[in-house]
Design brief:
It is a single chain. By secondary structure, this protein is an alpha/beta fold. It is built from seven helices and ten strands. Helix 4 packs across helix 5. It binds adenosine-5'-triphosphate (ATP). It holds the Pfam family ABC_tran.
Length: 226
């Protein structure tokens, strides 16, 4: 961990409209700073707004007000093209349900972000091979997601998130869909890769073993991260 802020959130607000009644305020005037290389767990009761917060931090949803600065760039001041490119380069996301492209092989799934960013084909192949090796899937590289186990699918998803070397890695219940043993192996791999590369990780989880692997554990309560 360093003392360089990588993510600065201030006065963030997010509500959802509700039929016939006042909007549901999910994120309420919250602010926090995350430093480069930190590993952060976000916990909170079901419905407390963890996935909502992750979607805002990932630039997948827009807040009602407030600012999200990643590497001093304001996510909500970018146009759609700028945001799409910035997200592809700077933000890796890992979901509970893997979200792999079913018709692409493990290797093709991992290559995809590099292709979207129009990297040179040689660089795409070198990076993809290296990451496949890091997640131990070299021999499974030509398999489709349906031919892989849950743990293998999540390793592909981790590789896909890491292959662009993003500034920020967001993981929403990354072990939630796996049995305990497999979940532990995936968590070992995730933390090994994150700490060896000095990447910044925010993980949302109900799993306290996973949360306690992080340097800081924050709780989302009454719309605020505390
Ligand atoms: N698109 C939406 N439209 C309306 N309400 C929503 C929407 N998305 C989430 N909500 C509501 O916002 C609240 C927070 O939901 P969110 O999924 O962020 O919570 P969570 O902490 O991630 O929950 P869980 O731990 O169960 O996944 C919930 O009351 C949910 O019903």
């Amino acid at each position: 961990m360093t003392n360089i802020p990588i993510l600065s959130v201030s006065r963030l607000e997010k509500s959802y409209p509700q039929a016939g009644t006042a909007p549901l305020k999910v994120i309420s005037n919250t602010g926090f700073t995350i430093f480069s290389g930190e590993t952060i767990a976000i916990t909170g009761q079901s419905g407390s707004g963890k996935s909502t917060l992750m979607a805002l931090l990932a630039g997948l949803d827009t807040p009602d007000s407030g600012t999200i600065l990643l590497k001093e760039q304001n996510l909500n001041r970018m146009n759609q093209d700028q945001l799409a490119r910035f997200r592809a380069k700077q933000i890796g996301v890992i979901f509970q349900q893997f979200h792999l492209m079913p018709h692409l092989t493990a290797m093709e799934n991992i290559m995809l972000p590099l292709e979207i960013l129009k990297y040179h084909p040689k660089k795409i192949h070198t990076r993809t091979r290296r990451v496949l090796e890091q997640v131990g899937l070299t021999r499974r590289r030509d398999h489709l997601p349906a031919q892989l186990s849950g743990g293998e699918c999540q390793r592909v998803a981790i590789a896909r998130a890491l292959v662009v070397k993003p500034a920020l890695l967001l993981a929403d219940e990354p072990t939630g869909n796996l049995d305990n043993n497999t979940g532990e192996q995936v968590a070992d791999l995730l933390f090994d890769l994150v700490t060896s590369s000095g990447m910044t990780l925010i993980v949302v989880t109900h799993n306290m073993d996973l949360a306690h692997r992080c340097q800081r554990c924050l709780e989302l309560k009454k719309g605020k991260l505390q």
